[in-house]
Input
Amino acid sequence: MRNWLGNDGNWIVAGLAAAITVPLLSFVAGMPFWIAAIIALLIFAGLVILLAPRRLFEGLDIKSIGSGRIAFARDLLEAAVPFAQRLEVAADAITDRKTATAVRHLAEIAADVFRKVEAKPESANAVRRFLSYYLPRAAEVAEGFAVIEAKRAPDTKQLEEVRTVLVKLEEAFVHYADSLIDEALGTLDTDLRLIQASLKEDIGR
Output
């Protein structure tokens, strides 16, 4: 499954490395156990720090953006991530290939929105409805399809109704993802007109 907002894999890797280090140094290299244990502990601590997952909004200038905006965006993302994960789980459970692909596409769009909001936390409000309403509803609809499909005699009409809703949800997902790009473009159209006007004035075309 996709790593949405980081995980604790660094602790697992560090623990395994430390566990392997002690017997290697003690039995293979003939080093006293207590020395091997100290070295293993240092390796464990070093790997935990070195492999620590990147935190949300790490590297951004909090002062220029505002701690309130970042906190708002963080709350939205952390609440939304479980629903994106549920979309992936539902996609794995759905046997209809076309529908499963559509559900996975919804999860991919959600991940794209997450990345854009993390890169620009001040844009979070533009996709607030997407994160707090459409994404949770999409997860519920996808799970509903999987449940209906799992019946011995699934209602084909009901399945088709769910597919129709998933298509409409995809349109909403794309709309909100693209709205972040449109927002980033800002005054591009105005800038282009001004540049063209200047070029026409200076070089006659």
Notes: The chain is about 80% helix and 0% strand. The two ends are 54 Å apart (CA to CA). Residues 62-190 form one domain.
